[in-house]
Amino acid sequence: RDAQRKNKFVALPAYEAALAHLEIRNPEQRLECAISAAAKGETALLRAAVSMLPIDGELNEYGQTMLHIAAMNGHVRAVKLLLDAHASPCTTAHGGSTAATAAAAGGHM
What we know:
Elements: H1 2-8, H2 14-23, H3 27-40, H4 43-52, H5 66-72, H6 76-84, H7 99-105
């Protein structure tokens, strides 16, 4: 009986939980989640955001993408995830910065 009870309450894998979290959000809230995930290096939430948002879409008033924000904050695993998902390292923000220049500005190169 205890084994049945334990199996009844199994946590969702991180990616599935992140997808469920984003699915109930409106578009503006999804952007906020993507910004937060990129800034914190939360790869499960970031992977879910990539499945719902344009990979090179502008996330903020500076024209930064998920890749810019992850690179600027030094999150190597998040940057790799985004590049593997075909984020363009050449996309420029409004001021002309790329993900590489954002990483350098953040002291991560």
